Prior knowledge:
Layout: H1 11-20, H2 25-40, E1 64-65, E2 85-90, E3 93-99, H3 101-105, E4 109-112, H4 113-119, H5 121-128, H6 139-147, E5 150-156, E6 166-174, E7 177-187, E8 192-206, E9 211-221, E10 226-233, E11 239-249, E12 254-261, E13 266-275, E14 281-290, E15 295-304, E16 310-319, E17 324-333, E18 341-350, E19 356-365, E20 372-380, H7 384-391, H8 397-415, H9 419-434
Parallel strand pairs: 1-7, 2-6, 5-7, 6-8, 7-9, 8-10, 9-11, 10-12, 11-13, 12-14, 13-15, 14-16, 15-17, 16-18, 17-19, 18-20
Antiparallel strand pairs: 2-3, 4-5
Amino acid sequence: MAEFDLGFANEETLRELSSSRKEPAWFRADRLRALANFKALRVEEHQLFTKYTDISRARVGGTIPYAQPSGPAKNSKTDLAGVSGVYSQEEDSLETLWLDPELEKKGVMFETLQDALSRHQQQLRALTFDHASLPERDKFAQMTKALCMAGVVLHVPDNVIVSKPILIRWSVGRENSALLTRTVVSIGNNSSAVVVEETEPSKAAGGERMAMFGGTAEVVLGDGSVLKYNGVENVGGGVATFLNRQISVGAGSEIQWAFGYVGGEMTKSHIDNFLSGRGATVREVQVLYGDKTQFFDIFSHTRHVAEDTVSDLLSKGVLQDQSKAYAKGLITIEKSGKGSDSYLGEFGMVLSRDSRFLSIPSLEIENHAVRRAKHASSVAQVDENQIFYMTSRGIEESEARKLIVMGFLDPVVARIPLEPVADRLRGLFESKWKA
């Protein structure tokens, strides 16, 4: 397991980032603590997974960070239909920032991290200053917390329903550049929202040297609320991507995660679910499709802290050519987690001899008074019995294989509420198959 070298991870860069954005002292101090953590932590802290971590493909030690703030958005409105708000950034340039005026009247806040620090400092401090806002034992979460260059904040007050999706889009990939971002989401009591977060290649993407993108989502979900959070990761070749998402779920609330991973030379994703309120629920689906020499490291850790909590976690992957993936899952039922109901499933489909899918589902149970604690795993090729069944009914063999593979990946696509995004993900999967 190689160590991770990042040349600009130093106090000088941190202070330049903070001073150029005129950040308050407490936020700078939070950055400095995170930087110390980043330098002290190993690439993999959990003993279950130390053998299953490969950081060697992230050749980003010499990348150059975007030091200056991106400034105000070029457009304050959007022509996208069916959305409640849009945040769109192209490399270091904020392109669009828009929120439905009716939601503004109801107290919904949707603005840049920099603006939130100046306008809503105390409210934001309550969300980000707490060390639990990002996992302290994860090296890459601390990296982004220390050196973030841009960010967006969404706050939905109590008793507010955001029925249409909020779209957040990052376009990255400029050669030898590094962009680290934070997304902070707060959903009040008895409220609901839908968030779609995308990464895609920028107009400047490409080149011989690798680019880097780091993104976090720090979510607090109040009592009796629902959040649907969908993501599509497709940064294109030559990009190393580090994603960290953490949520605290209140009593009687539900988080629905759905993520599709398609692009990039290397993708490392980590989700932390804290079911901290009684009756809290997490439903999570992740799928990936790898080709060529792509590498994916997908880890999900769910902690049943309160009583009568529910977790339903599913990871799927399709690999071809020389691509490789680790699917790592861990469910922890703490002593206080009486009556928990948990399921963890990890399933892979390999389409070539040289591809490899490794699943490592794990359970840690400290309270045995649970309703269910179950995990399942399998890795296989396309089922030839299914091929025979479909060809016997007049479907060409190549088309039959394609239908089986696309059907295997469909659970994430079906959960994405914004049709243009869902169609784009379907198109990305199709393009992989044609390649």
